[in-house]
Each structure stands twice: as structure tokens, then as C-alpha cells.
């Protein structure tokens, strides 16, 4: 279980406990959180599960795979240094407390 | 005045996304989502891939969690197909006899697998793949099967072939056309996929037709007969020869149909209170300038949002850029745009190394990018085309050192 905060563009946030194993994308889906589309269902093909990791984050996230980096070239909302595909972020106890910001748009 | 009500027929990708998009776009009226299947909406793409391979469970396929419908005040009616549409009375009748009144109706009934029109097609062991039930049956059958015959070299057939091959089955693919995926990809991409399947040990026969299937005496398929008389032994046959849009309900109600339910640029049928979206709808595309019917998650999902916007009072014509993906043996093919009618192809990267993109042009205009394991080319094409931004010309794309990343940066889109 890890606590994950999804912050919406309007400043409101949803805090949920996400069971392990899961991804940050699935964490949003199973909790009915709007703002992540995930058209490809988590296969790093669509770029519609884009999130920004909170600037203050100091948690150990896995390094970005080349294909994730490539997919992030085409997200609908601008790519930033903190951009990730939430389907490529596994939920583990180590990332308990993670805060992600949802972009304005996904497609 | 009563709250406006929307009835969505078909609880697949397009129907489920419509109900969800209506609520997230602020629709306050009644929403009823009617499905023929006994399960809540699920994703179909994994049925021929991860689910068939045993790497994903039924629970993983759900499009939304069980709590979704109650939480968003959506009535989900399962296992009760709509059987009649009364447009004068604004009512649909379900198989159970229940009737639902509507102000707006969305037909998201999808498509069904085409059956093989040859003798023996109803033998035990001859399967199609469209639903979760189909996929479960196929997965079970694959466990005690040695020889699989796939009829049809389209996406579903090839994905099944790849998954079965990876599971160790002996696989033959018979394709009627002269190349694989002829309607969907360029000749060069067909050739690449053909080589890939052959390299993985799949026997692929092109320009050949299955004329009959034969049983073993106990009613179970054991052999296929081809034109010319050749026979192929098989304990399991998957028929992947395309899908037919489910137009029955619409046609009986007098709506305009023709290889799909015909809709206008706003996805309205010939009755303005009725929309049709997803695999069942034929719509005019600004990207090709002619009517199209697409079978893809992108199209189902984007059309769902477009209809939801119209019902929430902010109509806009449907203009989303088509894109598609498939996975076979870890090869990720992604297509952005519609390449039909291209007259030249520029290759980026190295097909021999399994990482390349084919840029399909007509004249100077880029129609589609087909990428194998080069997601940046796919994504940047999608972005640029979607934004109506300048695209590379064949000459620019063929210049040494051309790369989409640099092109996009220079275009500053
Ligand atoms: C095996 C397989 C693999 C695929 N792989 C990919 C892929 O990799 N990438 C991709 O982009 N796309 C893929 N697709 C295509 C994609 O799944 C479809 O384009 C998408 O599901 C279309 O959504 P839809 O809602 O229009 O239709 P569907 O998802 O087919 O849903 C229609 C639903 O309507 C129901 N229905 C029909 N008639 C009635 C009625 N009268 N009353 C009530 N309900 C009714 C049906 O039972 C069905 O559940 C794949 C499809 C299959 C079958
Ligand atoms: S869900 Fe498609 S890229 Fe993450």
C-alpha cells in the first residue's frame, strides 16, 4: 500500500491508498480519478497517462526507459523536466507519499 | 422540466467512455448504459495479446472499477441487449421487455467477427475473437492444442499468431490477399511483418484461400482444405477475417446505414436525436476527405468525448487524428494518420535492426507515419498532424540526419 496524491489542475487534490502491485496510472483508474485517460491500457503507446511529478519529490522513482522518454515527446500538455508516464511508474511502499500533478489535457 | 436523459446502447469502449465523459464534462441528467454482455465494460486490445498469453487477468481488463457507475450516478444495464428502437416514441426496448425513454440516444454497438463462409465453419474448434468470452475459450483451447491455423492476416489474426507462437504452438496463417494487412499498412510494412512472422517460425501462406474445414468424425476440426487441394492439419482454427459493424438495430429503425451507421461530421445519424460512434459508425473524416469507419480504441474514445461535448452543449465537429497500435513478438507497430493512397515512402532508421519508421506521402503531403519501436516518430507525427502544424516533405525527411525530434524543436510546436 502506498499513499498517492493526485493534484488536479484546479488545485484540488485526491489522496488515495493504492495497493501493491499497481502503477500510478492504475491507482488513478481504480479510484475513479479523472484526468488520466490511458487509452492504450498501460502499454506505453499512447501518452495519455501523462503526469508531472511534484517538484519537491525526493522519492526513489525508477529511471526512465528510452521508450517512455520517446512517448513523452508527443503528450498533449507540454512536456517538462518532471514529466512521466504514470503507467510506467510501479507503486511500491518506497513511493509512499508521492504527489503527482495532472496535466490540463491528455489528448 | 425533467432532467435530460441519455441512453447509450453498447457498453464497450465507446459506450463506457461516453458515459464517463458526459459526467466529467458536467452532464447532470440521467445516463443509462445498456450492454449485451454480462460483464462491465472492458478493454479489447489485450484479448489477443496479454490476456491470451495469460499475463493479464479479467480484473486487469476492466475499463473502470465496479464502483464507477454508482459513484457517477450512471445506470449500467448488463446482459440485456436493445432489440428495438422506436424513434417516434423516443424509446428503446431491451430483450427483457424493459423500455427506456430517451432524449438523446447514442449507438455504440461495435462490430462482430465475420464468420467464414465455407463448409465446416461451425465445427468444434473453429473460433472467432471479439469478446472476453471468445478470448477465454481460445485461451483454454490453446492449452491443449499443438497446431493452430489462423485464417486471415489482419491485426487480430497476426496478434493471435504471435501470441500462440510465443506459447510454443505450431502456427500457420492463411491470407487471401497478396500481402498481410493490405488495407491497413504500406507494402513495405506488410513485407516487414511477413519476414518477422516467418523468422519466428510461423508458416504464412499468401494469396491462398481456405475452401473447407474438415472434422475428425467426432465433430471437432482437424484439417483445412485450401484452393488447389492442399490440406493443413490443425486442432484449432481462429477465423480473423474482419469485423462487420452491428447495423441491425439502426437499419430496422430506418436510420441510414451502409457498411456502418452513417453519421455526419458531428456524429449524428440521419435522426438528430441519435448519434452513432466507434466501430459501428461511418463518418466523414477531415483527414482523408471521405467517409471512414475505423476500428480502434483511439477512435472509439475520441468520438465518445466528442458526442459528450455535444450533449453538454458545446458541439464541435469530429476531427481527431486517427492512430493505432499493435504488438507482435515485442515489435510495437504504431500508426499515426491514414496512409491509404500514398505514392511514396521514406524510411527513417534501420529496418534490419527492428527500429524504423515509414513515412507515407502523397506528393509532398505526409499522410501517415508507421513506426516500429520508434515511438517518438509516432508521437511527434500525431502532435504535428493534430495541431495542423507543418510536416516534413519527402525531401526534408530523406535528407541525411533528419530526425523528428529536431524537426519538432525547429517548428516549436
Ligand atoms: C482482439 C482485439 C484486439 C484489438 N486490438 C486493438 C489494438 O491493439 N489497438 C486498437 O486501437 N484497437 C484494437 N482493437 C479494436 C478496439 O478494441 C475496438 O475498436 C473498440 O473496442 C471499439 O469500441 P466500440 O465501443 O465501438 O465497440 P466494442 O468495444 O465492440 O463494444 C460494443 C459493445 O456493444 C454491445 N452491443 C452490440 N449490440 C448491442 C445491443 N443491441 N444492445 C446492447 N449492447 C450491444 C456489444 O456486445 C459490445 O460489448 C482490438 C479489437 C479486438 C477484438
Ligand atoms: S497508458 Fe498509454 S502510455 Fe501509459
Automatic annotation (TrEMBL), chain A:
Q: What is the lineage of its organism?
A: Bacteria, Bacillati, Actinomycetota, Actinomycetes, Kitasatosporales
One Gene Ontology molecular-function label: metal ion binding
| Domain 2Fe-2S ferredoxin-type: start-end pairs | 2-106
* Signal peptide start and end residues: none
Indicate what this protein is called per its UniProt record. Answer: 2Fe-2S iron-sulfur cluster-binding protein
Instruction: List this protein's GO terms for biological process.
Output: P450-containing electron transport chain
Q: Which GO terms describe its cellular component?
A: cytosol
Gene3D superfamilies according to UniProt: 3.10.20.30
Q: Which cofactor does it need?
A: [2Fe-2S] cluster
The keyword ATP-binding is assigned to this record: no
Asked whether the UniProt record includes Iron among its keywords, one would answer: yes
Q: Which UniProt keywords apply?
A: 2Fe-2S, Iron, Iron-sulfur, Metal-binding
Q: Which family does it belong to?
A: Belongs to the adrenodoxin/putidaredoxin family.
Native organism is Streptomyces caniferus
TrEMBL record, chain B:
**Transmembrane feature ranges:** none
Q: Which organism is it from?
A: Streptomyces caniferus
Q: Where is the FAD/NAD(P)-binding domain?
A: 5-304
Query: Would you tell me the protein name for this molecule?
Result: Pyridine nucleotide-disulfide oxidoreductase
- Show the GO cellular component annotation of the record: cytoplasm
User: Has UniProt tagged this entry with the keyword Magnesium?
Assistant: no
Per UniProt, the keywords (alphabetical) are:
FAD, Flavoprotein, Oxidoreductase
Higher taxonomy: Bacteria, Bacillati, Actinomycetota, Actinomycetes, Kitasatosporales
The answer to whether the entry has keyword Magnesium is no
**Which cofactors does the annotated protein need, by name?**
FAD
Q: Which residues form the Reductase C-terminal domain?
A: 323-402
Recorded GO MF terms:
oxidoreductase activity, acting on NAD(P)H
Amino acid at each position: 500500500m502506498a499513499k498517492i496524491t493526485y493534484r488536479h489542475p484546479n488545485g484540488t487534490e485526491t489522496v488515495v491508498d493504492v495497493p501493491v502491485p499497481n502503477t500510478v496510472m492504475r491507482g488513478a483508474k481504480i479510484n475513479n480519478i479523472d484526468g488520466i485517460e490511458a487509452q492504450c491500457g498501460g502499454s506505453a503507446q499512447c501518452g495519455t497517462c501523462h503526469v508531472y511529478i511534484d517538484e519537491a519529490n525526493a522519492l526513489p522513482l525508477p529511471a526512465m526507459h528510452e521508450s517512455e522518454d520517446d512517448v513523452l515527446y508527443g503528450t498533449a500538455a507540454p512536456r517538462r523536466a518532471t514529466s512521466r508516464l504514470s503507467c510506467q511508474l510501479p507503486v511500491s511502499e518506497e513511493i509512499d507519499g508521492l504527489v503527482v500533478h495532472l496535466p490540463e489535457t491528455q489528448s | 422540466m425533467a432532467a435530460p436523459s441519455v441512453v447509450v446502447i453498447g457498453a464497450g469502449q465507446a459506450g463506457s467512455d461516453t458515459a464517463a465523459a458526459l459526467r466529467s464534462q458536467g452532464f447532470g441528467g440521467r445516463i443509462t448504459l445498456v450492454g449485451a454482455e454480462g460483464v462491465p465494460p472492458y478493454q479489447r486490445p489485450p484479448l489477443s495479446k496479454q490476456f491470451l498469453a495469460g499475463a493479464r487477468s479479467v480484473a486487469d481488463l476492466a475499463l473502470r472499477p465496479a464502483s464507477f457507475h454508482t459513484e457517477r450516478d450512471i445506470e449500467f444495464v448488463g446482459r440485456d441487449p436493445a432489440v428495438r428502437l422506436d424513434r417516434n416514441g423516443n424509446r428503446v426496448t431491451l430483450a427483457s421487455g424493459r423500455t427506456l425513454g430517451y432524449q438523446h440516444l447514442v449507438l455504440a454497438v461495435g462490430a462482430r467477427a465475420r464468420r467464414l463462409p465455407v463448409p465446416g465453419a461451425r465445427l468444434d474448434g473453429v473460433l472467432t475473437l471479439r469478446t472476453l468470452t471468445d478470448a477465454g475459450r481460445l485461451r483454454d483451447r490453446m492449452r491443449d492444442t499443438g497446431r493452430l491455423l489462423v485464417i486471415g492476416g489482419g491485426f487480430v489474426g497476426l496478434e493471435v499468431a504471435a501470441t500462440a507462437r510465443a506459447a510454443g504452438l505450431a502456427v500457420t496463417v492463411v491470407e487471401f490477399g497478396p500481402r498481410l494487412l493490405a488495407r491497413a499498412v504500406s507494402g513495405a510494412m506488410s513485407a516487414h511483418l511477413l519476414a518477422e512472422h516467418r523468422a519466428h517460425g510461423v508458416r504464412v501462406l499468401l494469396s491462398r484461400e481456405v475452401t473447407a474445414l474438415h472434422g475428425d468424425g467426432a465433430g471437432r476440426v482437424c484439417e483445412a482444405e485450401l484452393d488447389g487441394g492442399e490440406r493443413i492439419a490443425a486442432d484449432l482454427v481462429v477465423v480473423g477475417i474482419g469485423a462487420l459493424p452491428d447495423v441491425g438495430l439502426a437499419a430496422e429503425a430506418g436510420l441510414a446505414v451502409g457498411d456502418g451507421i452513417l453519421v455526419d461530421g458531428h456524429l449524428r445519424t440521419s435522426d438528430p436525436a441519435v448519434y452513432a460512434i466507434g466501430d459501428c459508425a461511418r463518418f466523414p473524416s477531415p483527414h482523408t476527405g471521405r467517409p471512414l469507419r475505423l476500428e480502434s480504441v483511439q477512435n472509439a474514445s475520441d468520438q465518445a468525448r466528442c458526442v459528450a461535448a455535444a450533449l453538454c452543449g458545446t458541439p464541435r465537429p469530429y476531427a481527431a487524428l486517427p492512430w493505432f497500435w499493435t504488438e507482435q513478438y515485442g515489435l510495437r507497430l504504431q500508426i499515426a494518420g491514414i496512409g491509404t493512397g500514398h505514392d511514396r515512402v521514406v524510411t527513417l532508421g534501420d529496418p534490419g535492426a527492428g527500429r524504423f519508421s515509414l513515412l507515407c506521402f502523397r506528393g509532398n503531403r505526409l499522410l501517415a507515419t508507421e513506426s516500429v519501436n520508434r515511438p517518438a516518430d509516432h508521437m511527434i507525427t500525431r502532435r504535428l498532424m493534430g495541431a495542423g502544424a507543418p510536416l516534413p516533405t519527402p525531401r526534408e525527411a530523406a535528407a541525411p540526419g533528419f530526425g523528428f525530434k529536431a524537426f519538432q524543436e525547429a517548428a516549436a510546436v
